[in-house]
Design goal:
- Strands 1, 2, 3, 4, 5, 6 and 7 form a 7-stranded antiparallel sheet that branches.
- About 8% of the residues have low confidence.
- This protein has 2 domains: 167 residues, OB fold (Dihydrolipoamide Acetyltransferase, E2P) (Beta Barrel), CATH 2.40.50.120; 106 residues, no CATH class.
- It contains 5 helices and 11 strands; from the N terminus they run H-E-H-E-E-E-E-E-E-H-E-E-E-E-H-H.
- It has 309 residues and is an alpha+beta fold.
- Helices cover 17% and strands 32% of the residues.
- Helix 2 packs across helix 3.
Length: 309
């Protein structure tokens, strides 16, 4: 089968902003915002799934489709430049079952490029009839084609991957979704009236300049208590985020490993020591962004590298 791959489909920048709405003709699959999420409570990510990897894909994808592959044509030659030695590039066409995330409509059948790993014998997998989740963006002037946002942005569908994807997409679409954390602006330490008592406040920088702050409260004979506030006023009733939630992801995967020196520039050396200790405590409490990674923060990357092309 002859497959025509447009330059727009091959030239895929990794990072993106929200794409314009794609309106399709008759036979389109419609969605507004995010399809309803199934039950997937925080803290119950099955083995083999990584919340951070899926969050990377979801937040980068204006379109997420649940589709069944109808045909797959292997791409070779100049159009397969950049494919890893242990992978093969395919152009697939798939029947869209559900538009999990998107605004507007797309055709009931769409196509995209995907690089898939070869098996131990160097053979490509059979993609036909596979049900997948495709994390993608529209192709300009080609409503029947989409672009994956990363090399691993085609994921096998399962009830658990579907529920996880929908939960993250729903959380990210909320008006009060936590902002993208970009760093630490400043730190303050206020000593208490008793020895070993005090509070550290860490004011964060965010992509859209919304407020975000972390507080660590220490009292003698008690475990340190930390919390996150997403308003100008630090709420005494605020709590620490649960693991595998969007706020946890924003912090665990994007905060720097150690407190930047400029954040404590206005503090005395004794105050700066307390602030650094409390920051290290928060990073340890957050844990690694991904299983097996060091507990360091700031390690959010696309696990599959650039998208095909």
């Amino acid at each position: 089968m002859s497959v025509r791959i447009t330059p727009a489909l091959l030239a895929v920048p990794l990072l993106l902003t929200l794409a314009p709405v794609v309106h399709a003709q008759s036979g389109a699959v419609s969605a507004v915002g995010v399809a309803p999420a199934g039950p997937a409570p925080a803290g119950t990510i099955p083995a083999g799934l990584t919340y951070a990897d899926y969050a990377d894909l979801v937040v980068a994808s204006p379109l997420i489709v649940d589709a069944t592959i109808r045909s797959a044509s292997r791409i070779k030659g100049a159009e397969a430049v950049g494919v890893a030695a242990e992978a093969a590039r395919f152009y697939v066409e798939a029947d869209v079952g559900t538009l999990v995330r998107g605004t507007g409509a797309i055709p009931a059948r769409v196509g995209w490029l995907v690089d898939v790993p070869l098996d131990a014998r160097g053979r490509a997998p059979s993609l036909k009839k596979q049900r997948v989740l495709a994390f993608a963006r529209p192709v300009a002037s080609r409503p029947d084609q989409i672009q994956l946002v990363a090399r691993d942005a085609q994921r096998a569908w399962s009830p658990t991957t579907d529920a996880l994807t929908r939960r993250i997409a729903t959380d990210a679409a909320r008006a009060d979704a936590p902002p993208v954390v970009t760093g630490v602006k400043s730190a303050f330490f206020v000593p208490g009236t008793l020895p070993a008592e005090g509070e550290t406040q860490l004011f964060l920088t965010t992509q859209d300049n919304r407020p975000a702050a972390v507080s660590v409260l220490r009292r003698p004979g008690e475990q340190p208590r930390w919390s996150v506030a997403l308003s100008e006023v630090i709420d005494e009733n605020a709590t620490a985020p649960a693991r595998d939630t969007l706020l946890w992801y924003r912090l665990a995967c994007f905060l720097p490993a150690t407190l930047p020196a400029n954040a404590t520039a206005a503090l005395s050396e004794d105050e700066a020591v307390h602030a650094r200790e409390d920051y290290a405590f928060v990073i340890a409490q957050l844990g690694a962004c991904r299983p097996g990674a060091s507990v360091s923060g700031g390690d959010a990357t696309f696990s599959g590298g650039d998208a095909p092309g």
